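Q: Convert this sequence to structure tokens.
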Amino acid sequence: MARRDALLRLHKTLQSRLTDLRKKLSDDLHDLRNAKNAATTGDVADAAFESGSDEMASQLAELDSREITQIERAVARLKQGTYGLCENCQEKIPVGRLNALPYTTLCIECQRELERYPSWGRGGYVGNWENVFDASRYDDHKEVDLSKLEIDLPSH
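A:
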């Protein structure tokens, strides 16, 4: 029962963090849009500083966006009943680890192995499969006419 209570508490923590991050990201994106639309005044050094600040804000917004995705995934796992189970070995992830990193999907041993051997994992590989090409969605019997492809060749 203690684990169940801890998981419910972690769910509240995740939801709270998700709300905070979404608001922060929305504000950051609003500020970035306004900064791009604002007229630049000052000298070259001011423009360079503003550009660097915008780049830093953009990178921080990207990190927040990634964390939002991880938290949304953890919440989905909670709803599926798989939250707190290692995606690799299916063992329970200790509550202490979940408290430290609530959106983790691997136990400490599997995480260490993954960091030591990035291609390691169940079935020989654990990684980000979100960007894998799904060939079944496309007609793979189409022939490509190479003469219709445009190729940029360097001019001499």
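The chain has a mean pLDDT of 76.
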